[in-house]
Design brief:
261 residues; alpha/beta; Rossmann fold; two-stranded parallel ribbon; binds NADP nicotinamide-adenine-dinucleotide phosphate
């Protein structure tokens, strides 16, 4: 089994990769920073679950279609056709909308939305032609409710829901399964950077529940892939928002507006 993980050099992606290494999969990790990729490669090799020949690291920016399609074509030539893509590469740069430069807004949309679509494009036709494969898209709980200071992130992550649902309809009956997950706050490098910039308003809404660990999130993701779960929510609040968001969100907005007036 060849598993390709974008964002596989760190955080949730790396923990997902670790679990598949433990299952004897062939693995490709995709990210931009060669140092982080090399560290991740060493870490996985040290675990003793995977051999050098079954582990490939590819430097590519998912936001550049030509980069990621070339990287994935090369990975498939080395380790065989992709059986599972976990699209975990993502960034967040919080800040009130009027303070985020357009480049910062575009960067988040390009990485989180277009970068995911680019990675999917690179494997999807091959999976369809072979009649099998699975794609797991890593979105965020922030896809399920607008958050103060997260206009670009919420927009890019909620757009992934539409992308995954539409693709699931197109893929129906083809043997290719499409899943999307909505992780909660999770202790990773991204969260550490994000918390320094998170507004008190967002913290009031999101900061109630303690963050999850990346291994715990990864275990749930891999379990959902095993079961073919189309949508994976984490914890009570995110599950409630995922299932009953249209009822809950007006009440939350009313409470928030009253508190501010
Ligand atoms: N941590 C949380 O609280 C949380 C909550 C909900 C959802 N998520 C989502 O979970 C996913 C993983 O996040 P994480 O917390 O594990 O973050 P992380 O530890 O910072 O890992 C992010 C990974 O994505 C890669 N990446 C970023 N931009 C990329 C690009 N343009 N092209 C290729 N690779 C890129 C990073 O490597 P390079 O920088 O070297 O490219 C790194 O490997 C993200 O999509 C994030 O939005 C995280």
């Amino acid at each position: 089994m060849h598993v390709i993980v974008t964002g596989g050099s760190s955080g949730i992606g790396l923990e997902v990769a670790r679990l598949y290494a433990g299952r004897g999969a062939r693995l490709t990790l995709v990210a931009r920073d060669p140092v982080k990729l090399e560290n991740a490669r060493r870490e996985l090799l040290c675990s003793g679950h995977i051999q050098d020949t079954d582990l490939h690291v590819a430097m590519a920016d998912v936001g550049r279609d030509s980069d990621i399609s070339a990287a994935i074509a090369d990975a498939e030539a080395r380790l065989g056709p992709c059986d599972l893509l976990v699209a975990s590469a993502g960034i967040v740069e919080p800040g009130p909308f009027e303070t985020i430069p357009s480049e910062g807004f575009d960067r988040q949309v390009t990485t989180n939305l277009l970068g995911t679509a680019n990675a999917v494009r690179a494997v999807y036709a091959g999976m369809k032609a072979r009649g099998r494969g699975r794609i797991m898209i890593v979105s965020s709980g922030a896809a399920l409710i607008g958050l103060h200071g997260y206009t670009a992130y919420c927009a890019s992550k909620s757009a992934l829901t539409g992308f995954a649902e539409a693709l699931a309809f197109e893929a129906a009956g083809s043997g290719v399964g499409i899943s999307i997950c909505f992780p909660p706050d999770t202790f990773t490098a991204q969260l550490e950077r994000e918390l320094a910039k998170r507004s008190p308003q967002a913290q009031a809404l999101m900061g109630k529940a303690p963050p999850w660990t990346a291994p715990a999130v990864a275990r749930r993701i891999v379990g959902a892939i095993d079961r073919g779960t189309p949508k994976l929510y984490f914890g009570f609040s995110i599950t409630a928002l995922g299932l009953f968001g249209s009822l809950i969100k007006p009440v939350l907005m009313w409470w928030y507006t009253r508190k501010r007036s």
